[in-house]
Amino acid sequence: MNWPDDADGDVFRRLLKHGFNFSKSYIVNYNVDFDTWPPSRSALDLLRSMYGTLEIFEQEEGSAGYVQFQIHGPVTYESVTTMQLQTSSRMAPYGGICESWGVLQDES
Predict the structure, then answer these.
(1) How far apart are CA 17 and CA 11, in angstroms?
(2) What is the chain's pLDDT, residue by residue, as a tens digit (108 residues)?
(3) What is the edge-to-edge ordering of all strands in the sheet holding 96-103?
(4) Domain-embedded: residue 96
(5) Domain range for residue 95?
(6) Is this model's pTM higher than 0.90 or not?
(7) Alpha carbons 85 and 64: distance in angstroms, whole number
(8) What are phi and psi of 82, to 5 degrees?
(9) If residue 43 lies in a helix (H) or strand (E), which one and from where to where?
(10) Helix 7-17 crosses helix 77-91 at what angle (to 10 degrees)?
(11) Contacts for 106 with CB less than 8 Å, ≥ 6 apart
(12) Does any domain span residue 11?
């Protein structure tokens, strides 16, 4: 596999190193960070209309709050980066950006 030399490519290389099965579909968690907390109701409504259920992680001492949504499907560099770009574009007017994601690997 030849992924770009960026943060997302690094994640894919780590997944490969740990035996991730790229031929399966998984639930991918995407996180949306906002310049100000809490995010506006309009931003949350738009995210819900795009992705359905949201989980809101409130600010805690030492960590910023964020909003998380999930997408089920194949885990590819293209799908992950496209999702981040599309979400960031839609959230930009609300001070939001989607730069982080995660997936749990099956235990073998």
Answers:
(1) 10
(2) 899 999 999 999 999 999 999 999 999 999 999 999 999 999 999 999 999 999 999 999 888 999 999 999 999 999 999 999 999 999 999 999 999 999 987 654
(3) 55-57, 66-74, 25-34, 96-103
(4) yes
(5) 24-103
(6) yes
(7) 21
(8) -65, -45
(9) helix 41-51
(10) 140
(11) 21, 24
(12) no
Q: Which CATH number goes with the domain that contains 72?
A: 3.30.70.970
Residue 14: inside a domain, yes or no?
no
If DSSP states are collapsed to H, E and C, what string results for 59-103? CECCECCEEEEEEEEECCHHHHHHHHHHHHHHHHHHCEEEEEEEE
> Locate tokens 């290389």: which residue?
13
Separation of alpha carbons 58 and 85, rounded Å = 23
> Are 52 and 67 within 8 A, CB to CB?
no
- Whole-number Å distance between alpha carbons of 68 and 91: 13
Nearest to 3 by CA among 80, 66, 61: 80
In a domain, 8, yes or no: no
